Here is the input.
Amino acid sequence: MLAQNRISSPYSRFGIGSLFNNANTYNLSMGGTAYALRSPMHINVANPASYTAFDTTSFVFEGGLISNFSTLKTDFLSQKSNYTSLSNLLFGFPVTDWWRSSFGLVPFSNVGYKIVSNNITSIDSLYPEYPDSVFRLSYQDKYEGSGGINQVYWGNAFKLNKNLSIGINATFLFGSIEKISATEFPDSATYFNSRTSKTTYVHDFYFTYGIQYFKPLKHDLTFGAGAVFSKSSKIKATQDILSETYTIGSGDIIQPRDSIVFKNGGIKGDIIIPTNFGIGLSLKKSDIWLVATDYQWQNWNKFKSFNEKDSLKNSWRAAIGAQYVPQKAIFPRMFDRIEYRLGFHYSKTYLELQNNQLNEMGFSFGIGLPLRKSKSNINFSIEVGRQGTTADNLLQENYFKFSLSVSLSERWFIKSKYD
Here is the structure.
C-alpha cells in the first residue's frame, strides 16, 4: 500500500495522521492550487469536475513519486529523516461527449513516529526498616506509530453546458494505523514494564463533490471558478487492542508476563471525518500564462475516533500559484514549450499544542517538460516549507519535497476508416 511507514513526524500521532494533499505534481508546483484548474493532460483529483477537460479521443495516465527530506528540531536538539514513495497512480478517459471518468490510487493519511521521554519520580520506601526514606525511580514513556490510510477512487464528471461541469469522486478508504504507548523501567527489576497497542483498520466509502465554471473573456482571457465539498462522514472501522506487562531479556527481546487481548474481529466503531469545503479562482491567457488561488476549510472540531475526541481545531489553507509558457515562435521549439510554475501556501493545521495552533507554510517551483511529437510530459516540483514552532518546547519541522510525475496522453478512441 502507498501509505505505510512513509514518514517520520511526531505530529502524525494526532487524529488520523498527517493528511496527504490530493494535488499531483502539476498542482503541487503551483502551491497546491487545484479547485479552479483543469487540463487535458493532468488528472486533478482534488476537484472531480475537472475531468471534463479530457478530450474525446485520449486516454490519460499519470504516475508520480515523492521524496521528503526533513529536519525536526527543538531549541536544543535536531534530527534528520527522509523517505521516497509512490505518490499516485491515476487514469482518465472519455465516456461520451458530455461524460468523463477517472480512477486511481492515492494516499489519504500517513502515520510514522517514535518518541521516547525519560522521566524520574520519587516514591516512598518499600522497606519497613527505612520508613522515612524516599527513592528516586527512573522510567521511560514510549510512543510509536506506523501505517496510514489509502484511497482508491472512481470519479465521474458531467458537462451541463459548455461552461459548467459537475463531478463526484466515490472513494473507498482502507488501511491500518498502529499506535503503541509503553512505560518501561530500565533500571528496576521490581517493576514490570507495560504497554498498550491499538491497531485501527479502516474500510468504508467517502464522497467528494465538485463544480467548475469557465467563462471566456476578451483578449483571449478565460476566467475560472471551482468549489469542492465533502460532508461529515462516519467511516466504519475496527480496532484490536493488546495490553500486556513484560520484561526485557538479553538482546532487547520482550518477554510477556500477562496480557489482555480484544480481538475476534476487532472492536467495531466509527471515525468521523468532518465537513470539508474549498473554493478556487483562476485566470488564464490562452496557453501562455495562468494564475490561480485556493482556500480550503475543514471542521476538525467535530472529529471523533471510536467516540473519543482528539482536541483538534478547525483548519484552513490558502494558496496561490502561476504558470508561464514562453511559446515565442509560431512553430515553437520544445524549449519554448517548457511550462514554468511557482506557488506559495499557508495554513493553520488542525493541531493545537501548548495553546499554539500550528501553522505550515511553503514555497514551490516546478517545470513541465513536453515530450516530442506527443501531448505527454514529465513534471518536476520542488517545495521548501516549515511546520510548527520551537516556542513553548514544541517541535519545528523544516522540509524539502521533491516530486516527479509522468503524464501520458494517448489517442485510443479513434474509429478506423477503411477504403
Q: What stands out?
A: The mean pLDDT is 87. The helical segments are 25-28. The chain has one helix and 18 strands.
